[in-house]
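Reopening this one. Same input as before:
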Amino acid sequence: MIVTYKGTKKEYAEGTQILEIAEEHKGDYQYDILLAKKNGALCELTKKITEDCELDFVGADTGCGNSTYKRSALLIMLKAFYKVVGREELKNVSVQFSISKGYYCSIDGDVEVTEELLASVEKEMHRLVDEAIPINKITMHIDEAKKKCEEYGMLQKVNLYKYRRSSGINMYELMGFEDYFYGYMVPNTKYIKLFKLYKYDQGFVIQLPTKEKPEELMPFEPKQNIYQALKEATIWGIEQGAPNVGAINDKIVKGEINDLMLVQEAFQEKKLAELAEVIASKKDIRFVMIAGPSSSGKTTTSHRLSVQLLAKGLKPIPIPVDNYFVNREDTPRDENGELDYEVLEALDVELFNEHMVRLARGERVELPSFNFLTGRREYHGNYLQLKENEVLVIEGIHCLNSAMSYSIPEEQKFKIYISALTQLNIDEHNRISTSDLRLLRRIVRDARTRGNSATDTIGMWHLVRRGEENNIFPYQQIADAVFNSAMIYEISVLKQYAEPLLFSVEKNTKEYYEAKRLLKFLNYFLGVPAESVPKNSILREFIGGSCFNV
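Same output, byte for byte:
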């Protein structure tokens, strides 16, 4: 068999594992090779060569490489827990949501989470890693897979299998322990060198490396306000009988999904009413500062919060931070020479502060508007003078950063962090990334409002994420309140809009495999028509039909 690697051809025996070829080229990569690309398609290193092909490799410093590392670490952790605790006492270990660059997990069974227990599990994990034990992919009939999952108490997986169209399931085996994971694994345990278990609240967190720093564990620094929002959403989902995708599908099949949609929307409205109550109770508040990552629903949330503020006797006045962009010729550029609108320096912070301070004093101010066609700030006689019951609602990515509003006294500001903090998981061990939910939202919205293809949106997503990591996430903890814009039913609705867009991504593009991954992810969901989505729903900001004209 002829294998081509970076233009060089070499002959290998038929049946050679790609792992052997990867070993020859590991010096070409700064970090461990975790996956391969065979003729452009992602595959595991355990795959064998059966035909002439072109190979490339994927390192731990990539998104799919890092996901593979984390997935494999979870398999090793689960195996270690069953070894240390025993199958009789341990009903299940659930991976719930992301926190502090790791995953928060809970344990069901006659087990108390202690530092001693976690130390024993960690020790067993290191033993498994040191022995370089193979992680084997095995294909079994769906009935056999159900039986295996029932033995381990993985009942969410059993329920999810009801909605699987194929009769075969790929599971992963580690020393007799089998589990199903959505995605690829490393060849053996020796690749998983870095991990740490921390006791946290009633469960624990497994801290893992990031793609930015694949050979380093970040400090465990959980953001309590984000954790509480995720915990609240998790408890709410359980109370509604919809803690995972299989349970959502059950409600669709039983005709109960419309009720769940209405209850979800009512719950969000209740949270917004509570926020408005807090703001109205603080007589010094003149500035409501709202920030959040891309596609978190900031615009609709601002509108809905404004309605609630009106109900409390306040008059909200929106101030778009985008109107304070510096003129285009003064916009900073990134390391590639591209205009960088995400950094704080892209805004005229001094002018913004001058105007806000003057407004707080009761002065009359002419506000600017930014012309995105000419790239210049303009003035069109938009004067504003705050009255006693008026508050400014300011939305922008830097609104939580004190450097953005340095002249405004803290007692006059109320800071809200908005994000789609989804607690919904595929099953016990396969979680749904909050960034995946936001990416699906953005793909659908960009196609509707900007005419962008899914290829365009996926191609820009890494730059969006970089801006969030630098300018939004570091300031989450200083928010006075967190609003969770994720809705438990929304992926079932987004599915109908996103799938055609994702299928349009051409195979010869670098965005194809991300589109393919998202399509596989959407396969777990049954679809729901959009007719029952309320006109004021955050979801309408993305699928269209909003009463707020967004």
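So the earlier flakiness isn't reproducible anymore. For the record, Residues 65-219 form a domain with the Threonyl-tRNA Synthetase; Chain A, domain 2 fold (CATH 3.30.980.10).
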